[in-house]
């Protein structure tokens, strides 16, 4: 871990200004991912701005019936929030499918959205990685790929987004609210928040330097039944091989997003329109153009099976 | 070996603290901006096991290493240093976290409870006593983390925090076998004492 | 004390204290975090420097240059030790691992430098400033590709067995057998993943070295390190009172100990080094993956007429074979047998001991084969195994087993588990979305005899102190040794103080190969026997007829407090147990039967173990509480072996890619249901005066196969390639809709 200086931000404005002003400065809140990557010197901030004490932790009702989740609300706080449990069950279930009690107590909503990928080659600093060293090459191609993405990848990166919470947010049509160093604010639809690698795998999200996520907003509850099924080798404390988030309405329509299969939560609206036709039709369309490896090709039939399981729960 | 022990927390106190932590919509008192000097070291104060401690640390020091190397509270273990094992579990402001994935600098003003704060050999916390009674450990290296988690898990259930094993999210939480095992899954025990740990925790919690 | 005739009645048989489920005497220290482990010796060493190990990033080749200038100039750095500036250290006992020194790189993450700094953070940061150039050679690291080049190799721990162990005519028997099986099974590389990393604190004083380290066998580490440093053994003291698990990883000295010692010397200050978790899998040792071909032949009644078992694995040049055929030598009868092993060269971390070496991976394969064969024969798997039990060494029929109750294990297990409720037709039982199956397997593990010493001292206050360099790696040594001494001397358990892990104490067997408990308590039995004689003499008794109980020494009508023997000063006795030829005359082994119920999600193939039972025959159980923990811990590891554990090689670069506790999955709480254990009560007087046998490894033997067989019974899908992960089931699971 390289030496860095540290400050505790006194206000939102000061925090944003502090990061904007210093090259190599970063926000830190939960830090569960950033600090881990700093230990490997995959992340090497020169200055950390601690935003943990900023007033961004509240979870509040919105006038339109939606919910505004402060960026610093911990995973635990969000999952335990009465309205999240009652009306946004897919989000509560996605959150608690991830990590562990300890990590969820520390990890924040914004930090979770911004967590970096878990490709083993991203961590193997002796080998090339286009996310770590842009242009150096992708060591995962031709390597051990069982856990990696099967769709939405590029010849430059096949890392998967490891998140669970983000998959839940994706089916809920969440939006990300930010503040920029100039004080302006903007909303980014969750579907636009995680970028596909293309030829710039190192660019993972649309945030500008110094731009800070302040909240995630949820529209009015979608109703229906909510399911999140996460498949992994051991029963807990592991990233998804495949996960599926489903919000299913009584008439058989609904929304579907997959986790563990792509560089971002994978929701294809054209595919979910086929829900009444059954899981095979949905998966066929959702994974059109997939480029799995021999090792991870099973994720596609597994996605279909996980969806079938979620639908069977929904009908039960 | 003498340890700077000054208090023992009861399960009830932990429950209350965790419940507050979970429900916290309000915020800690505002803290003025403070910056590290160019040397990269930072003064901070912690309340550890009820005792006020002042430290001047390299900004890179984790809470785990602050406890182990600077305060000599070695009951909190380093198994992996990367959040993969749970041996470093401690309570901060009543909530369990991995001390290895937290900078000490970020805990200025926080209350930290480590295994040494739960009890000592001649005055055991009920969870510690239950672990002995059920032989819920072998090598002992994951044990402090397991015990910190076990106490916190009971509090989290009371506070209505759901888990991956929770059936009806709206119903009151209970300590079923599935709930307990899921919630404890962030603490790896390679000696494989899980079955006995479950018995110990159920013993303390009272059978559902 | 030389043990060369079977034990008769002795003071241990009273079982007033030994054999009872006493709680761990070190329990309060462990649950309060006050038991000090190797990296935590603030009590012994003030202000140590911190070492950070740098691992090679090639699998095979040479270090051509190390530019350490920037690292040496970095803040807080006290020294940088590079492998090019040191002579190669000789490998330690029972290993070929090249720990440090010289240019040659034999495997990934081999230590090539140590950065020593005033703080942990400074050492870690400076390590990133090293610039290391390599000359890389192609690495051999794909077992399947290298297997055709493998050469026959003997079993290092079974020197009496021929390299190709043939009895009768297997080929003819297979040709004649009406029912046969010929299948190939693979087991993966595994890593021990003990919770405490390898760690050492080292301090020099006047040319003498003390290390506080994490070692399973104190004398092996001490001898290895003394040799590596060119130090007289007496100039090296080793202290290891608490060890955070080992499972074989800490049987041999590792780079942390050598580098802590070198680092401390270089900076003239104590130094501590923990091998960083992400280095452990590639830097050290592994359980070697195997490819095992098993052929079985049987007559129509189900009697085996032929067993052929061939195993190939890979290892560093000059290293050993994983003795996967070892259990097959002794577990079942068959007149025709053909067992052999081959070893290929692989440039990976060294294949070496991990809990139940040989037996664990061997039975992972053999016990699936037995399940398959039972089905082909139309026999119940339990009945098939009972039918093929042997009471003698199949190779030397004149050599019986000392005690062998495998059949009873199987029968008790079947009854307790409700095996009769199992539907033998695979894929026929379900529970909602889950397919449910039961599986079982037999377990076998040899009982090893090792010399072991101890010293006992009756203090003037009437307390008894036990000193031995035996270790407690979680096994319960402190407790069973206290129980042994209390039983022998007629004292309450809390009157005994046990001190372990210090090389100043008499040399003991140490912890490994499930030999620790039986041998260490037998060594203590010997010392206590000597002390009893001294006490009797001092109190004026004839030693032959004296009883020690309730703090009194009694013969006939005369009864004297034990305390009186020490009133003029402490009374000390030291002895050790050594063994004669009884293990040649008799096969000594431990047995088990493992039963598992597994549910498989019919949609996703996710597997959950619902119930598990082990029935164990391992001689006298010295403490049912701690022994049970050994067995449930091994069963837990067996679930891991069955369902998730595998080091995965990147064959292009020659290293295990999942080299941390996130990537290498071991079971978590949610994977493990309530586990049941039954111990049979068959003390073995041939084993030792304690009549005990090993307990630490038998619980793993067969456990994984029982789970794999249950998955088969649940689904009808036979997976012969461990671990049994859901991707191997998916295409054969019922249609999901």
UniProtKB/TrEMBL annotation, chain A:
Record keywords, A-Z: FAD, Flavoprotein
InterPro entries xref list: CO_DH_flav_C, CO_DH_flav_C_dom_sf, Diverse_Substr_Oxidored, FAD-bd_PCMH, FAD-bd_PCMH-like_sf, FAD-bd_PCMH_sub1, FAD-bd_PCMH_sub2, Mopterin_DH_FAD-bd
Acyltransferase recorded as keyword: no
GO molecular function: FAD binding; oxidoreductase activity
Pfam annotation, one family: FAD_binding_5
Domain FAD-binding PCMH-type as annotated: residue spans: 1-223
PANTHER family per UniProt: ALDEHYDE OXIDOREDUCTASE FAD-BINDING SUBUNIT PAOB, XANTHINE DEHYDROGENASE SUBUNIT C-RELATED
Name of protein: Xanthine dehydrogenase family protein subunit M
UniProtKB/TrEMBL annotation, chain B:
UniProt cross-references to InterPro entries, sorted A to Z: 2Fe-2S-bd (IPR002888), 2Fe-2S-bd_dom_sf (IPR036884), 2Fe-2S_ferredoxin-like_sf (IPR036010), 2Fe-2S_ferredoxin-type (IPR001041), 2Fe2S_fd_BS (IPR006058), Aldehyde_Oxdr_Iron-Sulfur (IPR052914), Beta-grasp_dom_sf (IPR012675), TAT_signal (IPR006311)
Pfam families tied to this protein: Fer2, Fer2_2
Keywords carried by this UniProt record: 2Fe-2S, Iron, Iron-sulfur, Metal-binding, Oxidoreductase
GO molecular function term, any single one: 2 iron, 2 sulfur cluster binding
Domain 2Fe-2S ferredoxin-type: 42-118
Annotated EC: 1.2.99.6
GO CC annotation terms, alphabetical: periplasmic space
Name of the protein: Aldehyde dehydrogenase iron-sulfur subunit
Automatic annotation (TrEMBL), chain C:
InterPro entries tied to this protein: Ald_Oxase/Xan_DH_a/b (IPR000674), Ald_Oxase/Xan_DH_a/b_sf (IPR036856), Ald_Oxase/xanthine_DH-like (IPR016208), AldOxase/xan_DH_MoCoBD1 (IPR008274), AldOxase/xan_DH_MoCoBD2 (IPR046867), AldOxase/xan_DH_Mopterin-bd_sf (IPR037165), PaoC-like (IPR049648)
Superkingdom assignment: Bacteria
Pfam family, one: MoCoBD_2
Domain Aldehyde oxidase/xanthine dehydrogenase a/b hammerhead: 32-138
GO MF term list: iron ion binding; oxidoreductase activity
Protein name stated in the entry: Xanthine dehydrogenase family protein molybdopterin-binding subunit
UniProt source species: Methylobacterium nonmethylotrophicum
Organism phylogeny: Bacteria, Pseudomonadati, Pseudomonadota, Alphaproteobacteria, Hyphomicrobiales
